[in-house]
Design goal:
Layout lengths: L3 E4 L2 E4 L10 H5 L2 E9 L2 E2 L2 H15 L7 H14 L4 E9 L15 E8 L4 H8 L1 E7 L14 H12 L4 E5 L4 E5 L3 E6 L2 E4 L10 H12 L4 E3 L2 E2 H5 L3 E6 L2 E9 L2 E2 L7 H18 L4
Parallel strand pairs: 7-8, 7-15, 11-12
Antiparallel strand pairs: 1-2, 1-6, 3-4, 3-5, 5-6, 8-9, 9-13, 10-11, 10-14, 14-15, 15-16
Length: 287
């Protein structure tokens, strides 16, 4: 069965899906996106993703192409049409097509959704052994809290990390502060507390970040939302990263140096187990 995409109200074969070359998402990266986990055919943390999409559209002055209920209905239809049980739902909204000009008018927004298979069960093995990360200079724009498609700096950082043998890049500013990863939120553990950069224009308010904080508090694990430096990360007891595609994966090495014991630590493992329990509660999925 060919994969299907949703493009402005129509399901079309993925290979035939297209938007105008004048679309501002293509011309200016004038667009926002969301990536949602589909587990057991069900969307995980959908309400949080929908709220962030609404907030980001408002921040850029892009009209919502559909109401939240209609968006959810179309997402579910696309998931069902693709017979997806373990996958990622990608949603992108652009300001729409129009004459190429830096100034813009309220164009009709373009809505594209795709579904692709994703091996969430494979993340369990990754959680067991942990991953390496590499630091990179943070060269992104000043509103990292808005999930736009302008990801060139993130792409280059991720590529540099891969060359260095890393799963992810941790982005570091001129003061040595770790903001987040190229596509994940960054965490360390010190003295029994989990530490992550506070919400600001410098970090994306990750959905898995919010869920991890809620679950940590349920487990009576202390949460310290504050900046931490690269030097502090090297001295941490544990470290981990979170994202929709990476639910609490231990960071066991940074720039070629081990963190803690060099294996995922006890707090990381507890939170990883709590995430899978939450996934099972919401979707019935068990890896």
């Amino acid at each position: 069965m060919p994969r299907l995409a949703y493009v402005d109200g129509r399901h079309v074969p993925l290979a035939d899906a297209a938007v105008s070359v004048e679309d501002r998402g293509f011309q200016f990266a004038d667009a926002v996106y969301e990536v949602c986990a589909v587990l057991n055919g069900r969307l995980f943390d959908w309400a949080l993703h929908a709220a962030r999409l609404t907030r980001n559209l408002s921040a850029l002055g892009i009209a919502a192409p559909l109401g939240e209920a209609a968006m959810l209905m179309q997402a579910r239809r696309l998931i069902a049409a693709n017979r997806a049980t373990e996958a990622l739902l990608y949603i992108q909204v652009t300001r729409g097509a129009g004459r190429r000009d830096h100034g813009f008018r309220p164009d009709r927004p373009t809505l594209v959704m795709t579904v692709r298979p994703f091996d969430f069960a494979g993340r369990v093995a990754l959680q067991a052994k942990g991953v390496q990360v590499a630091s990179a200079n943070d060269q992104r724009w000043g509103r990292c809290d808005i999930k736009t498609v302008g990801l060139l700096a993130n792409v280059l950082a991720k590529a540099s990390a891969k060359v260095a043998g890393g799963f992810e890049a941790w982005l570091v500013d001129d003061a040595g502060v770790v903001a987040e990863g190229a596509s994940t939120n960054a965490w360390i553990v010190r003295g029994g507390l989990i530490v992550t950069h506070p919400l600001s224009a410098r970090v994306l308010p990750g959905i898995m970040r919010a869920t991890t904080i809620r679950l940590a508090r349920d487990l009576q694990i202390g949460v310290d939302e504050r900046p931490f430096t690269l030097a502090e990360a090297h001295m941490a007891d544990e470290a981990f990263l979170t994202a929709t595609t990476a639910p609490v994966i231990g960071v066991v090495g940074l720039d070629g140096r081990p963190i803690g014991s060099g294996t995922p630590g006890p707090i990381t493992r507890r939170l990883g187990g709590a995430i899978w329990a939450e996934i099972a509660t919401q979707t019935g999925y068990r890896p």
